[in-house]
Amino acid sequence: MKRKERPDSPSCPLSIHCLRLLDELDVPKTPANAEGEPEPSTHHGDEFELLSRLRRHLPECQICSSLVAQARHERDHQRQLLRQFLEDAEHRTPSTQELIMQAIRSSQTSAEAEQESLATLNHADHSGQNQHRRLPFAVLSRLPELTAQQPAVPRAPRRSPLLETLVLAAVILVVLLTTGSLGYLLLRDTSSQAPASSPPTAISVNASYQSLVWKAIAMVDPFPDGTGRYHLYNYDPFSGQKRLLTSTCCDATSAVDGIAHSGRDLLYHDTQGKARLFRTLSHPEPLFSCSCSQSSAVWTTDDSHLLISAGSELFLVNLSGNSEPIYSSGLLQNSTLAFYYNDFLFFIHQEKEKEVLYRLDLANGEIRSIASRPLTTDQGVPASTSSRRNAWLLNPTGSTIYYSAGSGLGATLYMVNSDGSNLHSLNRHGIPLGFAEDNRLLFLQETNGAFEVRKLGATPQQDQLVVVNAAPGARSVLTNGLALAPYGWALLTEALYPDHSLRLWATNLMTHAQKLLLSVSAAQVSQLGTPQLVGWDQLPVSNEATPTPSTNQVPGNTLLNDDWNGLLLVSGDQSGQLTVSNYNYASGQLLQLLSALPAQTEIDGISPDGSSLAYHIPSTSQTDYYVLDLRMTPPLIRFQYHVSGSGGNAIWLNAQTLLLNTPTALLRVNMQQLQPKAVMAALPDTRLAFYSAPYLYFVGRVGSNQQALFRLPLGGTFDQRQAITPPVQRASTDFWLSPDGRTIYYVNYHSEAPGIYAVDSDGGNRHRLRPWGVPIGYAEDNSLMVMRYRQGSFEVVKLGLTPAQDQVLLQNAAPGASTLCAGRPIPATPVDAELICSNNVALAPYGHHLVVQAYYPDGHSTLLAYNLDNGQQLSAQAAPTSKLIGYNRYPPA
């Protein structure tokens, strides 16, 4: 029983309209419009009809219902943040509020009194050897500087209470805009050094929405072009799309300085002669230049200015290219600017064998030492400027700084207030990564050879495990090769392996899916170095291939774009023992994963993210359940559970949750917790098929030789079951759930009208689709794909809305073969269901590739792989009798 759908979440064509018209959908129906009268609205007639359709559609569509619930949660969360911000702003600008109220009560204020009240807001210039000039823009926590004297204004006639209220609101809005506090709400200091992130332990609604825009990372290609320069790309690690940002960066004389807090611009510098030129993507002409060998730069919180250190001078530069020196100190010489928040600039200065983090108050020029840590190296390579900068993380509220002291994952984690007070150890070891949506720290630590991502709790015992292993099979990770996405939805990890090769992993912290992006041999690591991860952004990407080097650059492990290139298959030997292997259909490579399994071993399925295999071994007294981690080489047992009694099976509810149908109860197992929990009573003499919230679908026996598909609410009782299909011949079909969860397909060649049937997921609208064929999966547009035997050929057909719209994608998947079924006699009259067995045909997710096990009249068999986009054969390999289990994302190299 198969849920042959896309590995990603199913889609619904109306979901975009449900989100677009969310506010209208939430307007409560009045008794009048509930009876059919039109609702007052500015929408056209088509929108009225669409709204009515959506209201009828929402209760029936679990996809749209889930998205709408998430959108409502996101909207409420944003409103809560706005209310919280207004409350905080009221406390942060008490003097502003006082001035506003005073101006409203009495608009006739003498110039002398106004001068005196504003004088308290000014700060004397810093005295001593450091030279300081006041910033020409308003700092966020202070009032802007005003004109020294204002002419007296005659008392105006008393306004009405309503007018005074409107004036008060307008003045508050002007002050918010003038002081930049409104920009503070919108930007929230989400710098690349300390991005806000969301907790992926329970899938974050905020993260799922933010990932739509913070989906790409700027990275420097590790392979130079013909001129020796390294191109800077913007890369979506999960879709494989990339876009060239600039070819003038980077080499030994140029580098990236940082990404804007908005995520929509990037600052970098290059060298021409003796001049160092600073540019942004939006302003390719130089904004600032200096004759300096050492410099660094950061964005201001609102992205309106740049702070650039050149030698001992600090310059303020706007995006029009105007600059002026605002501070000078020998302490800035050979220092690295770390980050800017409110009106404080933090920078790092090396002193003998340690680096010290300083805070410079740009309002008065005061410098304060915050914390220090010993200088370290990463695998013997001195820390780069970017890695030193990212070693210090300022939390999104600007109150606390986290850092590590020591080497690599053995370093001790510390925290200190941003003013240098309350410095203390966190009694944990690891590498700080960034922050969750609730502003708690996410950090990486090593436990028993696995590189875990954890969320900081009040005590070490309360830390939450977020990722089991960010770099499967690795020997170590590079501390300057870690990049956590804003809102915590994804992590990129560069890791070194026992053979000294380097691999770049992408982990989706919401779905826990992992993807191998790049594999570089040891020789190339030694020659070229490692990829540079600049930071996540909101810049666009295009439909180019992934930045995996071409085969003439990297002979070895290069991955195809859709990356579902591994196929698991099971074969048996003469003694009946089973072997599970991983087959790379693109290269023909076959890697043995498990061997000497008992003959009664049953395969339950591959997780939706393609990372794990579930199987169980029944015996007369107990059943043993296992989950194999396919990301490891060799693979490791991720989970095992033993239950009394024989029988049952397991299905995946999602990428991290397994449902076990044991003889005693239905158990839910989360791969993060590994503690089974009873969900409902056992379903004896049944086989779980698939789950589509809130229903569990299973196959039950009807009579002595027939079976049917049933469903019941997960957590319900057996008496609540509902028959979805009529009885069919036992073991004659699999049941296939469509990607949108609405339709179930199956075959019935033992009825008066044989062929492929479709039925709604609630059991209604049963009808025959075609009088021929066997379902094999789904195309990228969710169309059903089938295989049929016609005139001696095994055709692959994509079904259309009508038979006239059917498309033949492959004329013959097994030329010369007599059957695609192992050990089954060839019928005298060709019948598709007798010649085509689903466990000998495997269609890849999205329908681009196909593998079949073909059996020939002389008794031999062959694995054949095809690219269905162009009809070309990818590989052909002689193989013993096998069952094709399904696809995964971790093929053998």
Short description, anyone?
It is built from 13 helices and 60 strands. By secondary structure, the protein is mainly β. It is elongated, with a radius of gyration of 32 Å.
What does this structure look like?
- Helix content is 14%, strand content 39%.
- The chain has 893 residues and is mainly beta.
- Helix 6 (94-105) packs antiparallel against helix 8 (161-179).
- The protein is elongated, with a radius of gyration of 32 Å.
- The protein starts with 14 loop residues before the first helix and ends in a 5-residue tail after the last strand.
Q: Approximately what portion of the residues adopt beta-strand conformation?
A: 35-45%
How many helical elements?
Answer: 13
Helix-strand makeup class: mainly beta
Sheet having the most strands: 5 strands, antiparallel
Give, in spatial order, the strands making up the sheet with the most strands.
1-12-11-10-9
Termini separation comes to 31 Å
Please report the total strand number as a whole number. Answer: 60
As a whole number of angstroms, the C-alpha radius of gyration is 32 Å
| C-alpha geometry | elongated
Low-confidence stretches: 3-10, 30-44, 107-128, 132-162, 175-212, 378-387, 543-561
Estimate percent helicity: 10-25%
Q: What is the overall pLDDT average?
A: 78
Topology summary:
Blueprint: H1 15-20, H2 22-26, H3 31-34, H4 45-57, H5 62-92, H6 94-105, H7 111-119, E1 131-132, H8 161-179, H9 181-187, H10 205-210, E2 216-220, E3 232-235, E4 242-246, E5 255-259, E6 266-272, E7 275-280, E8 288-290, E9 295-299, E10 305-310, E11 313-318, E12 323-328, E13 335-341, E14 344-351, E15 354-361, E16 367-374, E17 377-378, E18 381-382, H11 385-390, E19 393-394, E20 400-405, E21 412-417, E22 424-429, E23 431-435, E24 441-447, E25 450-455, E26 464-467, E27 476-484, E28 490-496, E29 502-508, E30 514-520, H12 522-528, E31 532-537, E32 566-572, E33 578-584, E34 589-597, E35 602-606, E36 612-618, E37 622-629, E38 636-644, E39 650-654, E40 657-661, E41 665-670, E42 677-681, E43 686-692, E44 695-702, E45 706-713, E46 722-723, E47 728-729, E48 736-737, E49 743-748, E50 755-760, E51 767-770, E52 774-778, E53 784-790, E54 793-798, E55 807-810, H13 832-835, E56 841-843, E57 849-855, E58 861-867, E59 872-878, E60 882-888
Antiparallel strand pairs: 1-12, 2-3, 2-31, 3-4, 5-6, 6-7, 7-8, 9-10, 10-11, 11-12, 13-14, 14-15, 15-16, 17-18, 19-20, 20-21, 21-22, 23-24, 24-25, 25-26, 27-28, 28-29, 29-30, 32-33, 32-60, 33-34, 35-36, 36-37, 37-38, 39-40, 40-41, 41-42, 43-44, 44-45, 45-46, 45-47, 48-49, 49-50, 50-51, 52-53, ...
Helix pairs in contact: 6-8
